[in-house]
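Convert to structure. Protein one:
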Amino acid sequence: MIPLILGFACKAPPTETDPPASDTDTDTDAPPTTGDTGTPPVARPSLVSPAEATDLDPAPDALRVALVAAPHTWMAGDQTVGGFAYNGQVPGPTLRARVGDTLTVELDNQLGMDTSIHWHGVDVPFAMDGAGWQVSPVAAGESFVYTFVLEQAGTFWYHPHFDTAHQVDRGLYGVLVVEDPADPPVDSELVLVFDGVAEVEAGEDDPTVDPTPLRWLVNGLLDPVWSPPSGQTVRVRMLNASNAGYIALEDVRVIATDQGLLSAPESSTVLAPGDRAELEWSTGSAASEVTAVPWSLAGPSAFPAVPLFGVAPTGGLAAPAEVSWPFSGAPPTADPGRTDLRYTFTGSAENGWEINGQTWPSIEPDVVALGSEVVLEIRNVSPAHHPFHLHGMAFEVLSVDGVAPDTRRVEDTLDIGVQETVRLLVVADNPGDWMSHCHILPHAEDGMMTVLSVQ
């Protein structure tokens, strides 16, 4: 068993434009069991990676795909889920390319409402960012072509950045894999996308706690089973696409996070909303169950463990030896000691969330010079965690509460705990007005979002 601890996922309420059936409308009964009920066991669905998009461009250094965003209804266990999808699947098609490739995505909006695509973690030109700050969304019935060169290797994802919490919550998300040809080969890959359904409301005595899920979807499935061949090394690319859920993993071999390979492997990780991580998973012959222990922004909740998926390897081979990854071992950059920009996170679930006392969209952008190195200090004095996400540029973590990381760490989404202070180094090398915000999507919609303008 691979220990996982998952947090809650906050689901946005339906709107008048929603389809009749909603993942937030499902009941809270547990999935069918195989107990002594006189009925035969219900077959668990097979867990596989989301289907990959068809490449419409025969050129070896280009990936061109067509994505249709439209209403969609599917089955999650015994429940009907009504929402949205790209190309009729949830998660959307996985886009797979290599560093240096040109990605072109033709978006056809058939949702009946405005939408966009944001390329989370990818350093794109400002006009391709898909964010709603000075960029018009793609209107209902219209289309738009996103195109840019992929300069970073890693596991990224795409999702709307207009009516974000609502549209992401209802199924509009997918994974973008950018391969580095220099990486050592593995036997196979598995893409895992987590999202939560069927919450119960938090207690009135703690306004910092948002709704908690009773069940989780893994690649759109409830309680599936993964059946890899034994004796193989699998590169597991994981995305936390929930609106507000947390995933903590222990006793695993973490080889990469948001911005590709780590400087050194790690044995645990915490995936905040929007975070990604890659594991080296060596499959033996033993079967196991991966379960979730619900957490809230205030810590562990009182709800019982929730099954995520089973692991049932085929064959009797032992787990292989570890792969020799090209970890750099680079030390962190020394903190220069100055502070160029400071964000202070305040607020509450009852009164809304703020950055520097400002509530989106009534904000004043912070302006920095193109090419400058900006030391950003973030202080979280609110009663909840906040995963900070910066568009257009990654950042290096200089310290957390005054302690530097053991090795150089570059991220695009970083969870900031209650009363924590983090110091980040941002190289402002991408001109544009870049959104920076909490990636708990209800927090962002309630005001915890601002703009870093690189001029």
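Protein two, convert as well:
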Amino acid sequence: METETIPATKGRPREFCVDQALAEALRVFWTKGYDGASMADLTEAMGITKPSLYAAFGNKEALFHKALDLYESEKLDYTRAALEQPTARAVAEYYLRGALDRHCGGEDPKGCMGLLGTLACSPEADSIKADVVRRRASSQRALVERFARAKAEGDLPAHIDPEGLTGHMLAILQGVTVQASAGATRDELERLVDTSLALWPSK
């Protein structure tokens, strides 16, 4: 765990755990979104001064990008494991049930940080939106490639479009995360996932 000494505005240098401070910033962005998270919210949650935040992380935009890196590495690990499942349907089930576990339970905020954090971004936050879109496109490409391989292997019917199937699955995923943030119960969202999987194309 990294500890950094940052010059305080007055007196002795202030030490703080960079990893813990970033984890707290992630929670603030996840809960309030990029525009909704003020510098006062961030510094209070992180337990540091504004000059210390700038010195350790750069500006608010740079901090959000670092928080998004942490979110992807720690909170979206199930998406990488999903791609390794033996069948296309197993990929989809692992992905959707992983989203249920991540976004609908535990102590983390509800919903997807990348999606909810940028839904109401101001024009000044275009680079934030662009980063989230780029990351989402990368994940989408990985799923399209996985479903294309499943189709080539005969695991999916010949008439199925891997891009269309990926888009359908991600639409369900986004519905799950948005509804989770709006207060839907886990039982309600499990029924949504169960219904989607029941409609999965069979050979």
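The chain has two domains: 3-69, 76-198. The first helix runs from residue 18 to 36.
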